């Protein structure tokens, strides 16, 4: 069991370390990142309860509706809500890249527990697949979410617009991910290009967040 848990968590830890070290300015306190990771991990249980209730109390069978609501909406909304109430107004959220670190930590905490439960139930044969697709996709959704949280934090006139986008874009991407799995028999041929595009989008958001922070530091030095 310990070996399965280790295999399940290792990809999330590796991804979180990668995104944490991408911060070019002021890296966040480890305890705060771990705290966000734990909050994300705890989200799995209310998500499971809500999804179970929906499955048993409704007659929704449309793959389109299920893809855009049952998993993606609930999961991304709760992750967004956790970042909003535990991180967004926190004193340590003082750089544009910080949103990416914390939102990714929440997302990977969630993905880790989800992965542990899946591998405990189905064995480690799917561990590599799970690491490359579900775990990584949660991380990349987190990068996009965190980028817009950073924009909201430091653009007061557009705060609520960016807060909405911090939920909407990860939700849309997650829904498309689910839809690929549902609609295509040979889904691997569609999912791999989708993941490549998702990586490109995430890395561009990381680069832009660091560039915006660099401009902010430059303005402070000039003034």
Automatic annotation (TrEMBL):
Coiled coil, from the record: none
Enzyme kind, highest EC tier: hydrolase
Keyword terms, alphabetized: Cell membrane, Hydrolase, Membrane, Metalloprotease, Protease, Transmembrane, Transmembrane helix
Chief location category: membrane
Pfam families for this protein: PrsW-protease (PF13367)
Subcellular locations according to the entry: Cell membrane
Similarity comment: family membership: Belongs to the protease PrsW family.
Protein name per the record: Protease PrsW
UniProt source species: Salipaludibacillus agaradhaerens
């Amino acid at each position: 069991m310990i070996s399965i848990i280790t295999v399940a968590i290792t990809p999330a830890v590796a991804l979180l370390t990668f995104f944490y070290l991408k911060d070019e300015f002021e890296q966040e306190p480890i305890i705060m990142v771990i705290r966000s990771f734990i909050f994300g991990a705890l989200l799995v249980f209310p998500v499971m309860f809500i999804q179970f209730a929906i499955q048993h109390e409704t007659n929704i069978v449309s793959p389109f509706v299920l893809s855009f609501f049952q998993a993606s909406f609930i999961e991304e909304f709760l992750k967004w809500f956790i970042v909003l109430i535990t991180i967004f107004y926190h004193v340590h959220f003082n750089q544009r890249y910080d949103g990416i670190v914390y939102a990714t930590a929440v997302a990977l905490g969630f993905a880790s527990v989800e992965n542990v439960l899946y591998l405990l139930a189905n064995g480690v044969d799917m561990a590599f697949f799970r690491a490359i697709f579900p775990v990584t996709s949660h991380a990349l959704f987190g990068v996009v979410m965190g980028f817009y949280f950073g924009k909201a934090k430091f653009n007061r006139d557009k705060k609520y617009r960016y807060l909405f986008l911090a939920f909407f874009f990860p939700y849309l991407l997650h829904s498309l991910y689910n839809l690929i799995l549902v609609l295509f028999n040979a889904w691997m041929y569609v999912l791999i290009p989708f993941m490549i595009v998702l990586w490109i989008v995430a890395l561009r958001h990381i680069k832009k967040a660091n560039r915006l922070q660099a401009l902010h530091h430059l303005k402070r030095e000039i003034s």
